[in-house]
Specification:
The structure is a single chain. The protein is an alpha/beta fold and about 270 residues long. The protein has 9 helices and 7 strands.
């Protein structure tokens, strides 16, 4: 494991307007002197983020586009090259999660949308950015998956599949890029972020997530520490550590346990699983 010098890098972060993404922007700029280019679709959120950086906001810029569209990535990479900007690190953080529900109640369009945003955006981002990253003195790629990539649970069939795809893609890419680019993959657990914005969370749901999960700022700090250490697999959050450990020794039993906990709870977010 070779350390990766995160300081003063030029970093591209997708899903940067909120959640882990915005916390990563603040941390990398404020504590590591990085220049950050955020990618997302909310100008309002980006403007708020920029203002929160105070006199360091000159180290942040943002670009608005849908990361699930291949052509958008190609245009973005072309503009970077035209302007002489060579990124050092790409963090593919953008993601969506449908409400917890049985697969039989979902449709193909939902599945396609989840796979496009969660997985194909990673593929397109890497495809477009690798030629530029290879021109950096210390280039790297970090893809954000989920604890669900190791331990899929009921009600998240497509989401878990998309994050499993990110995991396997990242691990294969890591071997292909050995000695040329640093490639890491992140596995965060529950955290109160915009990922659950479509779940219609009640106060009890939010309390459950807050109690089980880890603060998004702490997750961002763990991600940066993992990158600096050069880790290939970065597990973040107490629940993620527990789930990945259990899945390695008793995958079937652990999945049954999670299903039992969810279906026997009174939480609104899991009601569709009963």
């Amino acid at each position: 494991m070779t350390p990766y010098d995160i300081n003063r890098k030029t970093v591209v972060i997708t899903g940067a307007s909120g959640g882990f993404g915005s916390e990563l922007c603040r941390l990398l700029i404020n504590e590591h002197g990085c220049r950050v280019i955020g990618i997302g679709r909310s100008r309002e959120k980006f403007e708020e983020l920029s203002q929160s950086l105070g006199d360091r906001k000159n180290k942040f810029r943002y670009v608005l586009f849908d990361v699930s569209v291949r052509e958008n990535w190609q245009k973005f990479a072309g503009k970077l090259e035209k302007n002489g900007i060579i990124p050092d690190l790409l963090i593919n953080n953008a993601g969506i999660m449908p409400p917890f529900d049985k697969f039989e109640n979902e449709d193909g369009e939902t599945a396609k949308n989840v796979m496009d945003v969660n997985f194909m955006s990673v593929v397109y981002g890497c495809e477009a950015m690798i030629p530029l990253l290879l021109r950096s003195a210390e280039g790297g790629i970090v893809n954000v998956a989920s604890s669900a990539a190791f331990s899929p649970v009921a009600g998240t069939a497509v989401y878990s599949a998309s994050k499993g795809a990110v995991k396997n893609f990242s691990q294969a890419l890591c071997e292909e890029m050995r000695g040329r680019l640093y490639v890491g993959c992140v596995f965060p657990g529950f955290s109160k972020t915009g990922l659950f914005r479509d779940n219609g969370l009640t106060e009890d749901d939010q309390s459950f997530i807050s109690g089980l999960g880890t603060d998004k700022a702490d997750i961002a700090s763990a991600i940066v520490r993992g990158i600096a250490a050069g880790r290939k697999l970065i597990v973040c959050g107490k629940d993620s550590h527990m789930m990945t450990a259990l899945s390695s020794v008793a995958p079937s039993a652990s999945n049954s346990l999670y299903t039992k906990i969810m279906t026997e709870s009174d939480l609104e977010m899991f009601r569709r699983l009963k």
